[in-house]
Design brief:
globular; 14 strands; about 300 residues; 2 domains
Length: about 300
């Protein structure tokens, strides 16, 4: 059995290849049962989450990801998300690889957002707003830039120092990255807004959105979390990664449905429907679109297969 480290994953998964592999995976018959989701009490701290995510492609591979989410880990200079991925032979069940979970997760998550953006954002999108400064932020910036001509990026975070540090690290002559403390102005000026936080209060307000904006909501993976308000959901053509996951776990969807701002029938489509051509994405230039992801085991398996082939 091979052990594949984070550095090998980073080298193996360029975003153009990963986005295309994800596109093909959502078109195929990959079995992905609902993930196991368990809340774990942590004394004196924010509750943690344990996620178990299986998927398999008959005759090829079986995969299982075990992930923990400890929201307070930032106070200890540790990532909030940790875990491992086990890839098994689909014909014999033999273990093939043990893969670094956090790196695989951020790469496939960012890749899924870029895949959605390829259907939902305007083809001429150049200005990206990144809300959040965690491990996903740099990956989301690079992923969105792989499918759209992004050349100007603003980063907003609750800690301006982290936003400034990330912007300095990613800025280059042909790819301008800066940070901002004015979230409203940044939202108003963005073509694509990507949000990856553990917020329980809306950060993106619908009244701020300009016609033609694409909103990519990656955080808020629990029903009690939220990154956008009801008005955002009312104004947007809404898509999700998978209906089963987003409608039961994604706080932005769950809370908007509970308030009446969104009906389940208002969800225009998911990634399987988009990639198979069963649903149209952006319908017109000035339309506001929104993609809500909570993660799918299909994405993990597709990324793990590509890593195993290349690493």
């Amino acid at each position: 059995m091979r052990v594949i480290a984070a550095s090998e994953i980073e080298a193996a998964l360029d975003y153009p290849s990963l986005v295309e592999r994800l596109r093909q995976a959502f078109r195929r018959d990959v079995e992905a049962p609902p993930r196991h989701h368990h809340d774990i009490e942590v004394a004196g701290r924010t509750p943690a989450t344990l996620l178990l995510m299986p998927a398999w492609q008959a005759g090829r591979h079986i995969g299982v990801k075990m992930v923990t989410v400890f929201p307070d880990n930032g106070e200890r200079s540790l990532p909030a998300v940790m875990g491992i991925y086990v890839l098994l032979d689909g014909k014999t069940g033999a273990p093939l690889a043990l893969i670094d979970g956090p790196k695989l997760t951020v790469k496939r998550t960012a890749g899924a957002s870029a895949l959605a953006s390829s259907y939902l954002s305007r083809p001429d999108s150049e200005r990206l707003l990144m809300i959040g400064t965690g491990a996903l932020a740099p990956q989301l910036i690079l992923a969105h830039a792989a499918v759209r001509p992004i050349c100007n990026v603003l980063i907003w975070g609750r800690d301006p120092k982290k936003a400034a540090k990330l912007a300095k690290r990613m800025n280059r002559r042909d790819f301008r990255v800066d940070w901002t403390a004015d979230l409203e102005a940044a939202v108003r000026g963005a073509h694509v807004i990507s949000c990856a936080t553990l917020s329980k209060q809306p950060l993106v307000l619908g009244d701020w959105l300009q016609p033609g904006t694409h909103v990519d909501l990656v955080g808020a993976f629990r029903p009690d979390m939220r990154e956008s308000d009801d008005e955002t959901l009312r104004r947007a053509r809404v898509f999700v990664d998978t209906r089963a996951g987003a409608t039961t776990e994604g706080g932005d969807i769950v809370q908007a449905v509970a308030s009446g701002a969104l009906a389940l029938d208002d969800i225009a489509g998911d990634l399987p429907e988009l990639t198979r051509g069963e649903r149209s994405g952006r319908r017109y230039y000035d339309q506001i679109t929104l993609f809500k992801s909570v993660g799918s085991a299909i994405e993990d398996l597709a990324a793990a297969q590509l890593v195993y082939e290349r690493a």
